[in-house]
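Priority: medium. Attachment 1 of 2:
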């Protein structure tokens, strides 16, 4: 039987703010080895025996960023497929869409391995053994979940009471006392949120236990746009009909109701990296228990976690602190309060503060831009355009733009004229003029953009033509 890994890539990662943002969530966080959690999830699935394609379900706003992440590490050029959601409707909708699409394109008996993009698994060999065990069960029609052998009375995870491969019951996140009781009994496993099943088995159980989710997802797919190419498939779910799909987790919708559920107990070095404490614990501590990334200077400080990639962070006489420094936001918290960072994120979101949503460096389909400085009537950006990429043909009502090429070559459309701007040259785009920027070269185009005008917000843009479906 063919096995297709399905990566679920979404969520906000609010407890890992300020590195995690709404448009740069937890799966895209880079670890000390330079790889993101999403890249590790891709390799985890792609390196399984006989896997020929990997399907990713993600928000359409993350598509180009996800493509870039995979391109960077997909050395074997394994085929990639995507299901793009206009917004999240929880895991039942995502899994329904994946199962329907896989059953249609690869056959109903195809096995599906659901992986979360924001988990970490340290023992790949043990993981592969667990997958092989899950395949045997899934081939008999079982919906298989992976149960993690607990090593602590963790209150942040759901639990599974099990007898061998038999699931006795699912349990919500327990109190500390209950978690200690579960750990001591040896009968309970952490619910990892990873699954293995045949597409047909999952669809049958969805028809039995959550028929509305299945029927509405089918209706949505029928009205959705499918693009196909060599070793590539992209299904963009229709926004209007997707809103009718009930929002429910796969655990509530199917797994807790079905009599066809099995579990594979495993010890694979699993973590969902649910807080700065968990993320910091991945780094080796120094002699005083401090874990640091970036340039730091510590004096008389113990058991601190410090992350900074842009500037020096110094700490004197402090203990048990988490300090996370980014160009536009600084987090300081006691380790014991690391789970409460989500409340800061929620308040920023309520206030509409930009730091809940974006970093100063923003990824776009054509490359990136970084806001270097801004005021009420000006903004300075560093723009990087990938080789062969171009921005939309666009116009701004309220701002003019001065472009200085730092490296590479720019092709610039300015109203009816088209010019080439080389390194150390510049050009000027007056407000109200249609214009377009393109990189015709083989190397990145790097330029400085100075915007000036009465309003320099990102929404002052009218697109006339666009390669990425945004016009």
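Attachment 2 of 2:
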């Amino acid at each position: 039987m063919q096995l297709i890994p399905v990566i679920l890539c979404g969520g906000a990662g609010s407890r890992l703010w300020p590195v995690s943002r709404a448009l740069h969530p937890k799966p895209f966080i880079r670890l000390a080895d330079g790889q993101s959690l999403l890249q590790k999830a891709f390799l985890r699935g792609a390196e399984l025996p006989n896997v020929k394609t990997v399907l990713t379900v993600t928000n359409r706003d993350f598509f180009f960023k996800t493509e870039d992440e995979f391109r960077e590490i997909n050395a074997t050029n394994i085929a990639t497929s995507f299901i793009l959601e206009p917004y999240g409707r929880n895991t039942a909708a995502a899994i329904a869409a994946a199962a329907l699409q896989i059953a249609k394109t690869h056959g109903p008996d195809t096995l599906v391995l659901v992986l979360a993009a924001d988990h970490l698994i340290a023992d790949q060999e043990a993981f592969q053994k667990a997958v092989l065990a899950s395949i045997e069960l899934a081939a008999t029609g079982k919906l298989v979940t992976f149960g993690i052998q607990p090593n602590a009375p963790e209150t942040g995870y759901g639990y599974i009471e099990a007898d061998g491969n038999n699931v006795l019951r699912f349990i919500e996140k327990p109190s500390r006392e209950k978690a200690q009781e579960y750990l001591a009994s040896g009968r309970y496993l952490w619910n990892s949120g990873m699954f293995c099943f045949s597409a047909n088995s999952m669809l049958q159980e969805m028809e039995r236990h959550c028929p509305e989710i299945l029927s509405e997802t089918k209706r949505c797919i029928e009205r959705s746009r499918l693009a196909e190419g060599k070793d590539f498939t992209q299904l963009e779910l229709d926004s209007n009909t997707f809103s009718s799909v009930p929002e429910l987790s796969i655990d509530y919708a199917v797994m807790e109701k079905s009599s066809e559920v099995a579990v594979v107990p495993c010890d694979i070095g699993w973590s969902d990296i649910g807080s700065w404490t968990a993320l910091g614990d991945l780094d080796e501590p120094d002699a005083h228990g401090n874990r640091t990334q970036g340039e730091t200077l510590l004096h008389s400080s113990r058991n601190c976690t410090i992350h900074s990639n842009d500037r020096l962070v110094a700490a004197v006489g402090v203990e048990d602190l988490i300090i996370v420094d980014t160009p536009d936001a600084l987090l300081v918290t006691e380790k014991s309060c690391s789970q409460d960072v989500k409340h800061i994120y929620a308040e920023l979101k309520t206030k509409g503060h930009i730091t809940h949503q974006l970093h100063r460096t923003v990824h776009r389909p054509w490359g990136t831009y970084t806001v270097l400085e801004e005021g009420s009537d000006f903004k300075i950006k560093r723009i990087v355009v990938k080789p062969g990429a171009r921005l939309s043909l666009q116009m701004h009502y309220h701002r003019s733009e001065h472009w200085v090429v730092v490296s590479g070559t720019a092709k610039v459309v300015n109203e009816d004229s088209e010019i080439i701007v080389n390194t150390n040259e510049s050009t000027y785009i007056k407000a109200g003029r249609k214009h377009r920027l393109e990189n015709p070269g083989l190397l990145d185009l790097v330029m400085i953009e100075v915007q000036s005008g009465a309003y320099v917000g990102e929404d002052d843009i009218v697109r006339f033509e666009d390669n990425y479906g945004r016009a």
